[in-house]
Amino acid sequence: MDYTRDEFILPKKVAIDLTRKLRWGVVGCAGIAVHSVIPGIKQSATGEVTAIASRGIAKAEETAAKLGIPKAYGSYEEILADQEIDAIYIPLPNHLHMEWSIRAMEAGKHVLCEKPIALNAEEAQRMADAAAKHGVHLAEAFMYRHHPRYEEIKAIIASGEIGDLRGIHGAFTFNNAGDSGNVRYRREWGGGSLYDVGCYPISAARLILDAEPEAATVHALISPEHDNVDMMASGILEFPNSVALTFDCGMWADFRNTLEILGTSGRIEIPNAFVNDPTFYVHTKDGKREVKQPALNQYALQADAFARSVWEEEAVKFTPADAVANMKAIDACLESAYSRTRVTL
Questions:
Q1: Of 105, 128, 144, which marks where a domain is finished?
Q2: Tens-place pLDDT, residues 143-155
Q3: Residues 173, 140 share a domain
Q4: What is the total count of domains within the chain?
Q5: Can you give the pLDDT at residue 17?
Q6: Which of the 8 DSSP states describes residue 296?
Q7: Residues 140 and 153 in one domain
Q8: Which SS3 state, helix, strand or coil, does residue 212 take?
Q9: Which of 176, 184, 249, 341 is most deeply buried (CB count within 10 A of its CB)?
Q10: C-alpha span between 51 and 72 (Å, rounded)
C-alpha cells in the first residue's frame, strides 16, 4: 500500500520569476518519489527534475522515461557529480539518509531528505553540521507542514476559540503487514511504525505546541515475523504546561490519519491530518464549524518553500535543528517501546 499517494489540485501561483528553476536530482526510485514528490516538484512554481539515479541504469532509465526526466544515472555517485543539479531529494531507506545526505552536501548540493531524517538524533546532528559547514540548505520532507491549514489551525488556537489547550491525540495507521520484503520491516534499516508514521503526530504536536516533549512512554507490538520492528505503537509524549500528545501508529492496522486538538471550551477535529482532504472542523458550544481548505498539492508547496529558502526569498521555516529535535523525541519513544519504561528527554 502506498499511503502517500494523493490527488491534489495545483497550488495557486504567486508572483515569482517563472524563468528561474531549482534543478533537482533524485537519488533512488522509491514509491514516494515516483508517485508523490517528483510529480509535486514538476507541478511546483520553482522546480524541475533534471535527473534520477538508481543502483542500476535500467531502473533509472525506466523511471526517467515514465516521468519525463531528461537524465538517468546508474549510480548515486554520478548524480552527485552532475554540475547542472542544484538540489538532491533523498527517498532512500532510513539507514542511508545520513550517508547520502552528507555526500550530497559535500558535493555542494542542497538536500531534501525523506522523513525521518535519520536513524537517531546523533545522525541528524551530523547532517545539520554538514549543512552548516558546506553552506547548503537541508530540510526534512514533512510535506503536510507546508499546507496553509496548519497556520490557520494555530491561529484558531491563538484566538482562544477552543480555550486553553489540554491535549492532542494523533493517529497514523495502515496495513501493509503482508508485504514481508518491504524495507519498513528491516530493523537495522530503520524499519518500524514509529519511524514510518509515528513521526507525523510527533512532529505535528511539536508544531502546534511550539514546544519540545519532556518525557515519553510507549507500548508497542514488536513482531518477530517482521524482524522485531514495532508494527504498532501507542504512546504519550509529555509536554510543558501539563499538556500531552497521546498517539498511536501502526503498519498492521486499518488506515487512519487523524488529529484532534482538545481545549477547555472546544476542540479541533482533523479527519485527514497528513494526507488526503485538508478539511477540518471546529467544535465549540456554538456547534460544529467546517473549515474547508483548498486541496493544494502539499509536495509542490514543499518544493516551493525549499527553493525560496535556497534563494533566500523566504526565511527557513523548518531548520535542521527542528529535525534534530524531532529525532530526539523519536529516540525516546523507541527506547521506551523496547525497554518498556518511561524515558525523559
A1: 144
A2: 999 999 999 999 9
A3: no
A4: 2
A5: 57
A6: B
A7: no
A8: coil
A9: 249
A10: 6
Interatomic CA distance for residues 322 and 325, integer angstroms: 5
Contact 68, 43 (CB under 8 A): no
DSSP-derived pairing of the beta strands 215-223 and 165-175:
unpaired
Distance CA 139, CA 302 (A): 10
Q: What is the secondary structure of 32-85 as a DSSP string?
A: HIIIIIHHHHHHSSSEEEEEEE-SSHHHHHHHHHHHT-SEEESSHHHHHT-TT-
Q: Grid coordinates in use for 134?
A: 558546506
- How far, in whole angstroms, is CA 162 from its chain's centroid? 27
How far apart (Å, rounded) are the C-alpha atoms in residues 5 and 16? 28
Per the rule left: phi > 0, alpha: psi between -120 and 50, beta: everything else, 267 is beta
pTM of the model: 0.93
Say if 110 falls within a structural domain. Answer: yes
In a domain, 124, yes or no: yes
- Cell readout for 141 is 520532507
CATH no. for residue 208?
A: 3.30.360.10
In a domain, 310, yes or no: no
* Residue that is written with C-alpha cell 498511536 in the block: 248
* CA–CA dist 329, 344 (Å, integer): 10
SS3 content of the chain, % helix, strand, coil (to 5): 40, 30, 30
What does the mean pLDDT of the chain come to? 95
The arithmetic mean of pLDDT across residues 41-56, rounded, is 98
Q: Which residue has the cell 542544484?
A: 86
Collapse the DSSP code of 269 into the 3-class scheme (helix H, G, I; strand E, B; otherwise coil) and give the result. strand
Q: Can you tell me whether residue 160 is helix, strand or coil?
A: coil
315: buried, middle or exposed (CB in 10 Å: 19+, 13-18, 0-12)? Answer: exposed
| Cis bond upstream, residue 116 (ω within 30) | yes
Q: Which helix (H) or strand (E) holds 218?
A: strand 215-223
Give 157's contacts (C-beta < 8 A, 6+ positions apart).
165, 208, 261, 263, 268
| β-bridge mates for residue 87, sequence order | 24, 110
Q: The domain containing residue 60 runs over which residues?
A: 22-144
Radius of gyration, alpha carbons of the chain: 20
